Amino acid sequence: MAVVTVNLRAVTSWVGIARLFAVVLSCVAFSLVASTGEYRSPYGTWCMFTWCFCFAVTLVVLVLELLELYPALPISWDDFTSAFSMLAVLMVFTTSVVYPSTSIGSPCSSHCAQKAVATTASCLCFLAYALEVGLTRAKPGDISSFLSTVPGLLKVFEVYVACLIFSLLEHKILEASLQWCMAVYSICFIVTFLIIICTIGRCLAYIPCPLEKMLVGYNALALVMYITATVLWPLYSFKDTKRPNPCNSECTWNKNLGVTFLTIFNLIAYLVDLVYSTRMVFIRTPS
C-alpha cells in the first residue's frame, strides 16, 4: 500500500503562506460577489471566473505539494507554478481594476459593503500572488526553472497582454496595415505560448537547435514586429476619425486606444525580454 507523505513546509514556508492567503482572499472575493447576484455582465463574469480559477488552481497546487504528489506529474512543476503565479498576478490585477470600475457606481446603489470588501480582498489577493512571484523568482545565474527567470515571467506577461488585445478587437479589420498588426499579435502570441507550453511539458530539450540563441533571435524578431505594430496601429486605426461623444467602454475608439497602449506595453516587454535573454546567453558572469 502506498504511503502518503505530508510535507508541512508546503503551508508553513513563506511561499506556502502566500498561497494560503491567495486561496482565502480569492474565496472571499467571489463569495461576496456571488451573494450580490450582480455579476452576469461580461465584465462581472470575467471577474468571477478569475477569482474562481485562481482559487481552484492554487488549492490544487497546495494539496499536491502538501501530499508530495506533484513529482508524479509529467511536467516541470517549478515552471508550472511560476507561470501560474505570474498569470494569477496579471489576472487578479486586471480584475481588481475592472470590477470596481464597472460594478460600483458613483454613488453606489446596492450591496455597497459587499462590493467594497470584495474589491479589497481582490487587491490583497493580487499582493499575495505578487509576493509568491517575488519569492520564487530565480536568482541571477539560476536557469534551472526557465519560467521563474525574468525572461520566463515576461513570456507569460506577453501572452496575457496579447489576449487582452484580442479581447478588444471585435470589428472586422479591412485595412492592410491593420491586418499586418493583427498578424504580429497572432504570430507572437502563438510562438510565445508554445514556448511556455513546451517548457512546462519538458519538450524543449528535444529541439535539435541551440535553444538559448534561438530564443534570443525570436525575441529580436518579435521586437521588430511590435515596433511596426506600435507605429501602424494608431496611425491607421485613428485615421480620419474623431472620438465620439459620448464614448463608453464599448466604444470602438476607446477599444482602439486600449489596443494602442497594450501594444506599447508588449513592445517594452519584448525589449526587456531581449536584453535579459541576451545577457543570460552571451554575457557570462565569472564564477
Alpha-carbon distance between the two ends = 47 Å
Strand content: under 5%
Overall number of domains: 2
Overall residue-averaged pLDDT value: 88
Helix content: over 70%
Q: Specify the number of helices.
A: 9
Notes on the structure:
One of its GO terms (cellular component) is membrane. Keywords: Membrane, Repeat, Transmembrane, Transmembrane helix. It comes from Rynchops niger. Its main location: membrane. Residues 10-141, 146-282 form the MARVEL domain. This protein is an all-alpha fold and 287 residues long. The protein folds into two domains: 1-143, no CATH class; 144-286, no CATH class. The chain has nine helices and no strands. It is flat, with a radius of gyration of 21 Å. The model has no long low-confidence stretch (mean pLDDT 88).
Offer a few descriptive terms.
287 residues; mainly alpha; 9 helices; 0% strand
List the helices and strands and how they pair.
Elements: H1 9-12, H2 14-36, H3 42-66, H4 77-103, H5 112-136, H6 150-168, H7 176-200, H8 211-237, H9 252-282
Helix pairs in contact: 2-3, 2-5, 3-4, 4-5, 4-6, 6-7, 6-9, 7-8, 8-9
